[in-house]
Each structure stands twice: as C-alpha cells, then as structure tokens.
Amino acid sequence: MPTISPSLSRAPAKARWQRKYAGKTSPETAVDITSNVRRRSAISAARASSEASGHSGRLANDGNAATFWRAEATDTNAWLCIDLERIVTVSTVKLSFPFDGNWRYRVEISDDGNSGWKVVSDQTHNASSVKTQRLSGVNSARGRFLRVAFVGTPDTKPAALAEVAVLGNLSAQ
Questions:
Q1: How far apart are CA 6 and CA 137, in angstroms?
Q2: 11 lies in a domain?
Q3: How far is the CA of 171 from the CAs of 25, 51, 95, 115, 136, in angstroms?
Q4: If we measure between CA atoms, which residue out of 123, 161, 119, 173 comes closest to residue 34?
Q5: Domain boundaries, position 164
Q6: Number of folded domains in the chain?
C-alpha cells in the first residue's frame, strides 16, 4: 500500500476543526467527521489502490452520490482510504454504493495509514444488496485513516463507492 502523507500544511484545518468540534466527545454529540474533509478543495483526502478513468478516489467523498470512485477492472485487491485529518473515535460508518448489489468488504482504521490496521466492521460475508449500508456500533474504533477493502463485488464489477460518511468524535491526542 502506498504511503499516505498530506501534501500541504494542515495547521489551518486543525484550527477550524478544533473550533467546530471542541468539547464534542460523547456519543450523543457525534458529528459528521467527513463533512469537514469534504469541504477541502486543495487537498485530496482520499487514496485508492487504483482508479478507473473519470472515477478518482476523491469522488467517494465529494458529497454527490451521483459521482463515484471505481477501481480499475483488473484490481483484484481494491481499497479506498479516507484521511479523516485527525484521530477520531468512530461511532457509525455509512457507505453508499453506485448501484445495488452484494458488496463484500472490510472497514478498517489506522493511526498512520500504513500499518496497524484494525477491523471496524467485517462485511466479507455480507448478504445485503442495498445501495446504502449503515454500520452502527463499530466498537468505538479510533484512528485517522479509514479504509474500505473489497473482497467481493456484484456481478464481478470493479469495486466502487459513491459516498463515505463517518460519524464520531475528536479523540484526545
């Protein structure tokens, strides 16, 4: 997996983040972590194992369900990774796929995006074929980088994600 490192300084985003989410640490005050990431335009917050032409990784977190990331058809170990910008405690992950089907995957989290991946939700034996899947009660997984690793796709189509939303709280660092 390639190294994931920010290409620009995060200091201004950190200040905005702290003002917006300061003190929100209980499950009752969980916030949409990805909405802050979505607003950034100069920095791509997503990395992927591969990208089909016209379907870059950033499209899975652009707030528009009509656009989507798609892996290349030859990518048999496809994954998409979102940089949440800060260490967070995740309470819910919502994945929207570009079309209905039996998507099988694992959601993982890591502090550095390179190692120490912890399973947030194992959907490798998923039988659901709904377009949007909400994974609640993810055992308060903690980390900065959220990765969706695909192990099976409907009708042997390439892995794809229309939107990734993460609810949770800023963790003490």
A1: 29
A2: no
A3: 7, 31, 22, 19, 18
A4: 161
A5: 29-170
A6: 1
